[in-house]
Amino acid sequence: MINSEQLLSKIKSYNKFSNIGPLNKAYNFALEAHKNQKRVSGIPYIAHPIAVANILAELKLDSATIITGLLHDTLEDTKATYDIVLNEFGKEVADLVDGVTKISALEEKIADNSQAENFRKLILATSKDIRVLFVKLADRLHNMRTIDAFQSTLKKKRIAKETMEIYAPLADRMGMNTIRDELEDLSFSVLNNEARNLIVERLKFIKNNRLDNFNVVSSELAVLLKENGVEAIIIGREKTPFSIWRKIQNKKISLEHLTDIIGFRVIVNSINECYKTVGVLHSKYSAIPFKFKDYVSTPKINKYQSIHTAIIGPKKQRIEVQIRTHEMNDFAERGIASHWKYKISEKLSELSLKQYDWLRDLVEIMETGNSPEHYYEFTKLNVPGKCFLFYS
Ligand code: MN
After folding, report:
1. What is the pLDDT of residues 344-385, one digit of tens each?
2. What torsion, rounded to 10 degrees, do the Cα atoms 268, 290, 213, 231 define?
3. What does the alpha-carbon distance between residue 247 and residue 293 come to, in Å, rounded to a whole number?
4. Hey, which residues does 266 pair with through a beta bridge?
């Protein structure tokens, strides 16, 4: 468990305007409020709000959001009230904590209603301040990371299904891809552990048979780009078992034919260099048809930007490549959390606030029933005889 000094120094490392006094106070307030409570696993309850605050600090969010992470379960589970939090921490924090508590109350009702309707309610109830959603996502992420503590399979499946249907899509719409991927994969391990284990085994097999493949491919790409005057950082990221599962389902390829398990990311300094990189790669290697997508000139609905392509690359290996600038990469990982910059203060600029409008757009999209492309694919996830991710 991270202690208060570690948490504070993490926050200070990206936010020189952080409110150390109130942060410390919130840490101690949560410690006192939860002092006699335990998690299902038996460990002291306080480990949970601290873990949530830590996830929020990793997203580099502002002091009020992290304080809310520390306090998020106090209204529901302890003697603390809205007025007490208001007195101790002010209206901004009290309203945020209240917002998170309201979503938790909504969750209670979710099991009985149709999912789309609940999703709408959830978004509408919280779209006043997006920071409520950050805290709720961090809360759900930590609860999913520790879901094994529950004995009841039924309960675990209910929580995982709700995560897959509500929170992962929410993270997706907020551009928070790292959290989305983890939520999906944790849910997948509860909902269809058998399939996940098969994939994990296959991944191990492939890895054992092509040691340091990533290094070979990435250094060849790096040399090629350098020769062509492009300064790039190349990152390899292993795909999650769930993303591989989705691909197998969609493309109807078998697990045995699965070869590309690492996605390559080429991070460059400018948009011009993004296009130059595509040119260099496509000149040297064959591009695989229908794989080229330009989300730089036409961003995804959640504002994600990157150029995607797939090539028969070094060693005749088929690889997928995402090309983006540093700024686009930051957005791809942290989504709208990346709008907090801490250059002048820890409050959002008016320009950034205007970008909140897409959250309203999201509500509209949900209401008209158009599914984002990423989630359209979930409907194909049903495995006959196994658990169903979607109930119609
Ligand atoms: Mn919680």
Report:
1. 777 776 556 555 565 666 666 555 544 444 443 443 343 333
2. -10
3. 17
4. 234, 323
Query: If 0-12 CB within 10 Å is exposed, 13-18 middle and 19+ buried, where does residue 102 land?
Result: middle
pLDDT tens-digit profile of 299-338?
A: 987 789 999 999 998 888 888 999 999 999 999 999 888 8
64 and 96 Cβ atoms separated by less than 8 Å: yes
| Mean pLDDT to the nearest integer, 89-107 | 90
Integer angstrom CA distances of residue 199 from 28, 318, 328: 44, 19, 30
Distance, C-alpha 199 to centroid of its chain:
21
User: Looking up tokens 């034919």, which residue turns up?
Assistant: 257
Query: Catalytic: which of 58, 77, 260, 333?
Result: 77
Indicate the SS3 state at residue 113.
Answer: coil
Span 211-238, pLDDT tens digits: 567 888 889 999 999 999 999 999 988 8
| CB under 5 Å of ion ligand 1: residues | 73, 139
CA 49 / ligand 1 centre spacing (Å): 6
What's the one-letter identity of residue 84? Answer: I
Catalytic residue among 5, 32, 76, 373: 76
Residue 256 and residue 244 in contact, taking contact as beta carbons nearer than 8 Å? no
293-294 and 233-238 strand pairing: unpaired
Task: Give me the domains of the chain, ranges plus CATH numbers.
Answer: 4-191 (1.10.3210.10), 197-326 (3.30.460.10)
Tell me how far the alpha carbon of residue 213 lies from the centroid of ligand 1, in angstroms. 41
Contact in structure between 243 and 237 (CB atoms under 8 Å) = no
The secondary structure of the chain in percent helix, strand, coil, rounded to multiples of 5, reads 65, 10, 30
> Which residues are registered as beta bridge partners of 237?
263
**Distance in angstroms (rounded) separating the CA atoms of residues 83 and 165:** 34
For 24-45, what is the mean pLDDT?
95
293 φψ region: left (φ > 0), alpha (ψ -120 to 50), beta (else):
beta
Residue 3: strand, helix, or coil: coil
